[in-house]
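call fold(seq) -> tokens
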Amino acid sequence: MSQKKRKKGKNQNYRTGAVTGWDSGSTLEHQNGKVRRLSPDSRNLLLLDLVLLAVTQMLFNAEKISEAMANILSLIGLALLILALVRQFQYTKKSGNSGSSGKRL
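ret:
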């Protein structure tokens, strides 16, 4: 039986971070060593908004609701989207800068 030689790749010891200068701490996903996540309130509001807009579009396409009602429901969906964004930014302000903006004694 013949034995096949294993070919060594020229990038055997290649490390992405060392060669390209990519620093995992400098990405937008990381802040002070912690991964920033979507707040639970924002996530739930966005899910509710998505379902509301999808159902509205399905009912409008099936001609079950009028155009005026579809517009009203779309405006409610837009309001939910804005509310989710406000909640998300409030959440990151509370968790991101805890203790750093207060007065020193």
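The CA atoms of residues 38 and 68 lie 33 Å apart.
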